[in-house]
Every structure is written in structure tokens, then in C-alpha cells.
């Protein structure tokens, strides 16, 4: 309850469900989804400070994210960013909380979408530059193998 536009879901090894969510105008979010909890939309976007709602684990201005997928991989959440044109790597701490997010591939590949953790341990993603919102390069769009 209280979700605006989830763009990615992923389960960690402990069975916790995480969601990346596209905000309206101000904040994009990563949330830990728990039964019966209200994450605030449409009353709150981002951190609300209201005891009726669960605050997100991570927030970004929409210009830095606009999430378009989430994968749990190698102890991290990986959140693809369309407007932010980067892959956010968010460390999982083991108790459902997160560490400090790090931005990977800032502006290197344009708009990123759909991170996927493959059964062989590889992390994959795609670009989304030919959708009318990006600036396509001569080799777009691409499937990317993430190696860092």
C-alpha cells in the first residue's frame, strides 16, 4: 500500500522484497516491502517523517534516478536509472537496511534499464536510448554485461 509506480522488484537471500519506485516530481525511492505497511503515496513522496508511513530505504531526486528496474546481485541492490543515466549500487547490510549508494557508469551508456542477475552469477542490463527520450549513439541500444 502507498506505492506510486514500482519499476523493479527483487528478493534477497533472506526472502526480503525490495522495490524501486518512480516518484512523481521530487523523489524516487527504494523500499523494503513488508506485509500491511503503508509507504505513503499519495500523501508522501520520499521521506515523510509521519509515523503512519514507512520511509524509503533510499531516495534520490528524480533527475538522478528515474528507476527502471532493480536486481539483487552479489549482496547489493542494483537500480537502473533512466534520467540519471547510471546504475545505482546499494549495499545490503544483512538486516534489511542498506549502506551508502554508489553510482556506476555515470553518463557512459545513456539511459539504463532492466538489470538482471543471471543464474551463472553475471549481472546484465540494457540501454534505452532509442525510446524517444534519450540521445542514441551509433551502437544503441545495447545489452550490457556488468563486470565491476
Automatic annotation (TrEMBL):
Pfam families assigned to the protein according to its UniProt record, in alphabetical order: GSDH
Protein name: Glucose/arabinose dehydrogenase
Coiled coil: none
The Glucose/Sorbosone dehydrogenase domain, residue ranges: 1-133
Region described as Disordered: 99-148
InterPro entries referenced in this protein's UniProt entry, alphabetically: 6-blade_b-propeller_TolB-like (IPR011042), Glc/Sorbosone_DH (IPR012938), Quinoprot_gluc/sorb_DH_b-prop (IPR011041)
